[in-house]
């Protein structure tokens, strides 16, 4: 294995980040600011189609979304980061707060981020709302990880983690690990009516919680060109099952243990169920440093119910390849990305292997009415469409919050520069097939099918594009311009954009 000179920011540190800010990280946009205490203020003038914000102006922005029509927004951020020399400090702390004020046809204030964190050696403790992603994927151009893409606002939580890969001090650091374990508060969650004698029929909502954990390993010494990654993440929405089920006999801590381990609860009359809504991905990745280019290849193998254990939905997943230019010129590209998202199988085809749990129905849940969403936004990949984001004429089954989760998508992204002008481009084309519940063969549970009467969800195509550029100026000022558009039959056609002025402050 050949060693290579280590750059100031290694490519391995640019993905699998638990605190990724795709647009507003001060260190990325204003690298000349070295102080630990940083602040910024940004003003935007925004124009979009009436009642429709284009897809890439709202997707994967951590819930920081403009109003439709004519509006302005003001975003302020104040953050204290860790010391740039962590090896010299056993203990360190940090915090951040970011708010957005939208003024237009209405007015709203969004707390985009607000957290405090502390680091003791390799361990980090964090509490609050933060900008989190989960899974192996490119950190700035991806369509978004299946589990947690940065599409919705951060869920308030407490967390213990090893946030950066830690090289185990044997064999020269050949094996490194990172991971997290957290508990969060989702708040009031609607509960769907369900004809089951084990359920309390009068329960329409409960307070629910989030459990999340992950573990990732890396093979390869820190200075090697080649690194191999593998790991998993697991998320569970659960809580107050004693209000939902008539004979629920677990205490709060026992419920937490069942949610963490995925253990099946057995009630009276042999009623069996796992607690909550559980989903995640098993991820694999490879990075290789060529002399002038860095390569990142990754695959997210997704699960939602139980089909992956039978290899019944193995076709589904997110596959990507990213290239970073280590020697960008005065004009040219700095990063290129190509991704393929496939979620059409779901172990629900007539020829799919049998699974007791039936088709996966990604992000929907038979009990939690909002599925895998938070504050009206999907927590996972934004190409899987909630009902209120799609066209009104789309067919869906009763109780389905996500009306389109069978998707084939092709996506490319690019970051580059023209002298000091920075440019970002995203182009996405998707074929959308609704859900199995809105298809002619219907949803499944074991070998039982439950088709709806026609009409059915017919395949619709969608194209979304985005271009952004910004120019750093003297005295830590920056001006920017972005535009986005949607064309197709899944989303309403729209166009929009903004101009921005941003100021960074030194302390």
Describe the structure.
By secondary structure, the chain is mainly β. The protein has a domain of 331 residues. It has 4 helices and 26 strands. The strands form 5 sheets. The chain has an 18-stranded antiparallel β-barrel. The chain has a two-stranded antiparallel sheet with strand order 10-11. The relative contact order is 0.14. The N terminus is likely disordered.
Query: What oligomeric assembly is this protein in?
Result: single chain
Rg for CA atoms = 23 Å
Helix tally equals 4
Q: What is the global morphology?
A: globular
Give the amount of beta strand, in percent. over 45%
Task: Report the mean per-residue pLDDT as an integer.
Answer: 90
Largest sheet: 18 strands, antiparallel, barrel
How many angstroms separate the termini? 44 Å
> Helices and strands: which structural class?
mainly beta
Give a brief description.
With 507 residues, this protein is mainly β.
Topology, please?
Layout: H1 26-29, E1 37-48, H2 55-58, E2 70-80, E3 91-103, E4 107-120, E5 123-129, E6 157-167, E7 175-190, E8 205-219, E9 226-238, H3 241-244, H4 252-261, E10 264-266, E11 272-274, E12 277-289, E13 293-303, E14 317-325, E15 331-342, E16 373-374, E17 377-378, E18 385-386, E19 402-404, E20 407-418, E21 421-432, E22 443-445, E23 448-450, E24 460-472, E25 477-488, E26 494-506
Antiparallel strand pairs: 1-2, 1-26, 2-3, 3-4, 4-5, 5-6, 6-7, 7-8, 8-9, 9-12, 10-11, 12-13, 13-14, 14-15, 15-20, 16-17, 18-19, 20-21, 21-24, 22-23, 24-25, 25-26
């Amino acid at each position: 294995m050949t060693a290579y000179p280590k750059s100031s920011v290694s490519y391995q540190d640019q993905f699998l980040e638990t605190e990724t800010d795709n647009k507003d990280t001060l260190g990325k946009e204003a690298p000349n600011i070295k102080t630990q205490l940083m602040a910024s203020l940004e003003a935007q003038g925004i124009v979009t189609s009436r009642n429709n914000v284009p897809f890439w102006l709202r997707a994967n922005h951590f819930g920081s979304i403009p109003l439709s029509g004519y509006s302005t927004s003001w975003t302020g951020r104040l953050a204290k980061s860790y010391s740039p020399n962590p090896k010299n400090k056993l203990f360190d702390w940090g915090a951040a707060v970011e708010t957005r004020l939208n003024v237009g046809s209405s007015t709203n204030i969004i707390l985009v981020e607000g957290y405090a964190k502390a680091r003791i050696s390799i361990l980090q403790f964090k509490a609050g709302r933060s900008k989190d992603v989960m899974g192996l994927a490119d950190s700035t151009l991806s369509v978004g990880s299946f589990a947690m893409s940065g599409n919705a606002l951060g869920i308030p939580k407490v967390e213990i983690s090893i946030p950066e890969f830690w090289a185990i001090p044997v064999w020269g650091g050949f094996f490194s690990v990172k991971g997290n374990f957290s508990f969060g508060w989702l708040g009031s969650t609607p509960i769907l009516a369900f004809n089951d004698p084990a359920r309390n029929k009068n329960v329409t909502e409960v307070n629910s919680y989030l459990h999340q954990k992950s573990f990732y390993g890396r093979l390869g010494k820190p200075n090697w060109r080649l690194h191999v990654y593998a790991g998993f993440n697991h998320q569970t929405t659960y809580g107050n099952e004693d209000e939902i089920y008539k004979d629920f006999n677990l205490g709060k801590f026992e419920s937490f243990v069942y949610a963490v381990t995925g253990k099946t609860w057995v009630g009276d009359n042999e009623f069996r169920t796992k607690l909550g809504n559980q989903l995640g991905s098993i991820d694999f990745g490879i990075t290789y440093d060529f002399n002038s280019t860095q390569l990142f290849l990754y695959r997210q193998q997704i699960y939602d119910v139980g089909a992956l254990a039978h290899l019944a939905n193995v076709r589904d997943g997110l596959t990507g390849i990213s290239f970073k230019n280590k020697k960008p010129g005065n004009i040219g590209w700095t990063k290129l990305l190509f991704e393929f998202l496939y979620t059409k199988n779901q172990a629900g085809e007539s020829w799919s292997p049998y699974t007791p749990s039936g088709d996966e129905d990604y992000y929907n849940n038979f009990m939690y009415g909002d599925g895998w969403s938070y504050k009206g936004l999907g927590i996972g990949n934004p190409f899987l469409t909630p009902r209120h984001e799609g066209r009104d004429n789309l067919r869906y089954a009763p109780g389905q919050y996500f009306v389109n989760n069978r998707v084939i998508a092709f996506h490319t992204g690019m970051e580059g520069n023209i002298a000091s002008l920075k440019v970002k481009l995203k182009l996405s084309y998707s074929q959308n097939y609704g859900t199995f519940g809105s298809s002619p063969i219907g949803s499944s549970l074991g070998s039982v099918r439950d088709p709806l009467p026609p009409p059915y969800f017919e395949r619709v195509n969608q194209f979304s594009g985005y271009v952004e550029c910004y120019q750093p100026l003297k005295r830590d000022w920056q001006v920017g311009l972005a535009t986005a558009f949607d064309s197709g039959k899944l989303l309403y056609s729209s166009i929009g954009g903004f101009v921005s002025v941003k100021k960074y402050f030194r302390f």
